[in-house]
Design brief:
Elements lengths: L3 H4 L4 H8 L4 H8 L3 H16 L4 E2 L2 H12 L12 E4 L2 E4 L1
Antiparallel strand pairs: 1-3, 2-3
């Protein structure tokens, strides 16, 4: 079985390519393996999960939106949000 040190020898582009085959949960676990993996995958992760988000107009969802908007590295990836109705509530899309 490969260890983390061997994984870190991969070029960031290959690490990114591998990450595209992972589920959301697997990607989260992969990013937690070490700081270098997190750094190599951060930009693609942020684009995928924070550029286009929907938020319900409920306290917990709005708290998440505020948290992302105030986060120094995630905030730049959060684009303008527009209220949108659907499924019995308003969403930011």
């Amino acid at each position: 079985m490969a260890n983390t040190a061997e994984l870190l020898r991969l070029p960031p582009e290959l690490m990114l390519r591998i990450s595209t085959h992972l589920t959301t949960h697997e990607l989260a676990c992969f990013r937690l393996t070490c700081k270098q993996v997190e750094t190599n995958l951060f930009e693609s992760f942020a684009r995928e999960f924070f550029t286009k988000r929907q938020f319900m107009l409920e306290e917990i969802s709005l708290q998440a939106l505020v948290g992302i908007a105030n986060h120094k590295t995630l905030a730049p990836y959060l684009k303008g949000k527009v209220p949108k109705s659907g499924n019995g509530g308003l969403f930011f899309d």
